[in-house]
Amino acid sequence: MAQMQMGAEGKQSLPALLQRNAAQFANAPAYREKEFGIWQCWTWAETAKEIEALALGLINLGVNEGDFVAIIGRNRPYLYWSMVAAQAVGAVPVPLYQDAVAEEMAYVLGHCGARFVIVGDQEQADKVIEIQDQLHQFEHMIYLDPRGMRKYDHTQLHQFSHIQDQGRAARDELTGELAARQNKLNYDSTCVMLYTSGTTGKPKGVVLSNRNVIESAKNSAEFDKLTQNENILSYLPMAWVGDFIFSVGQAYWCGFCVNCPESADTMMTDLREIGPTYFFAPPRVFEGQLTNVMIRMEDASTLKRKMFHHFLAHAKEVGGKILDGKPVGMMDRLKYALGNALVYGPLKDTLGYGRIRVGYTAGEAIGPEIFDFYRSLGINLKQLYGQTEATVFITVQPDGEVRADTVGVPAPEVEIKIGDNGEIYYRSPGTFVEYFNNPESTASTKDAEGWVATGDAGFFEEGSGHLRIIDRAKDVGKMADGSMFAPKYVENKLKFYPDILEAVLFGNGRDRCVAFINIDLTAVGNWAERNNIAYASYQELAGHPKVLETIRSHVTQVNKSVAEDPMLSGCQIHRFVVLHKELDADDGEMTRTRKVRRRIVEEKFDDIITALYDGSEKVSTVTEVTYEDGRKGSIKATLTIVDAEVKPAAVHKVAAE
């Protein structure tokens, strides 16, 4: 670490850190990518040359200082290089979500006025071509994968490798210009612009400076003792701030290796092959993996299944304590060691988690049961609380103080205060510069003293100093009887069950709570197959009587758990429906980062909510959907409304005592 800190002094941009890494870690791996089943590798010295060639090529193409360069595609070294090359020439990289439809891309590209777009493949190029008439400032597009691109009009189209070749050819003429532009970069220069997922409206362009990114990367790396020897798997959307800070900010600060999977389909295989030491995933990834584990155990032999559940029960009791260095009896340690040899170790290796030293989850609250499951296996999984506007880090969990019900303590150099209404405010070196071309939103989010309103409600626990997040401030409400309504708390408990993919709770201002539930097609489909239950569609399976009964049993268990919390016992679910379709970002019901757009869901399915409250046993509905090719259609369904068992609230017991 000392070597890193010494070398980083005065390094106030990513290109400057790249030069340091190329000198200090010249032959160490910087990037790996699996292509055609084989891992390709680039050292830091080779990476610096690739980025220099691209930067020179961008100048040659006409990229000016202050231009916006949009980058669209899956995680590939070339696209990560594009972000640093853009900054090296004084431009601003703007990564976009690769699964965004053309219409969404049109808004972002038009809003930032991108003159240049770098895409991964033909699919992304087609989206840009479809909307280019709406983009008045767009001039040139660079594509990485040439497959399918040969017969396109190349007047404004350029192959990535050709731009690099042109840069190398013009090296003598343009090196001075590139050096001059790089030397102008300082802590106040813009490092990247990331668009928020837009849960409440149009996405906003969050401007992050070099200070924001490098100071956040430095502080977080020192907090978790990250070194140049870490290996990470970069598979999350490049447009997301989490990926940017882990795969770019911390990677450049520490000099560790970024590994890119071959495709989304091979991600789990590639994860096992790399065996990362430092890993980040949103809750849905951990939820999905737990679902797959439970599905596989259902198919295992009776002996294996019994052994799995026996040792898992023991891990639940002592695994977290052992991980945190707390006292555990010798017999319990021996039994845990045996469980590690027979169950936990092989399971971690199967998941690709065998070498993880530090693991993080964020983006959404993770269900306590899911969180505890991974920690019980000996995986040092921690939660952080962050936002794009904070360059990720607001709170972190110190080793030995990791809990499922809090998000830890303020991250290094972060100040936090709680407003009178329970809203959380912070300020830090990572606090964003502004929302691009949106002074009103900037002013309403960040005050003159640099305090940022998070929009989340929470409180600091007495004694521990840990922050607890209740929910989004705008989502926390009151039931008709005055008790607290906090939907996320209940939804996360439901999502612990492998066959529940998503849940949305309603009840603000009402006398009772009701819920929408999405089944997990993989888990429930596997169950149907094992039980010889035939189904023709998601809709048919979701409405199957046995599926509804299984979901009802889960809701009953969740109600029992919720009833034990005196503050939130009013949030038990009285009635629910299993929806006839998955909530989908293409239909506007979720963001690209898989956060539910509650208001839209509430408006779109208003007829179903009405039926949940008026005592109806069934409800017929018609829902508009968007197909993969962008066409619109509609699906009709008659849904069964299920009554759930509600438990007596623990608050009455407390009062009686």
From TrEMBL:
Query: Which InterPro entries does the entry mention?
Result: AMP-binding_CS, AMP-dep_synth/lig_dom, ANL_N_sf
Any one Gene Ontology cellular component term annotated for this protein: membrane
Keyword ATP-binding in record? yes
Which Pfam family, any one, appears in the UniProt record?
AMP-binding
Alphabetic keyword roster: ATP-binding, Ligase, Nucleotide-binding
Q: Tell me a Gene Ontology molecular-function term this record carries.
A: long-chain fatty acid-CoA ligase activity
Domain AMP-dependent synthetase/ligase positions:
18-436
- Write down the EC number: 6.2.1.3
Q: Which domain of life is it from?
A: Bacteria
Name of this protein: Long-chain-fatty-acid--CoA ligase FadD15
Q: What class of enzyme is it?
A: ligase
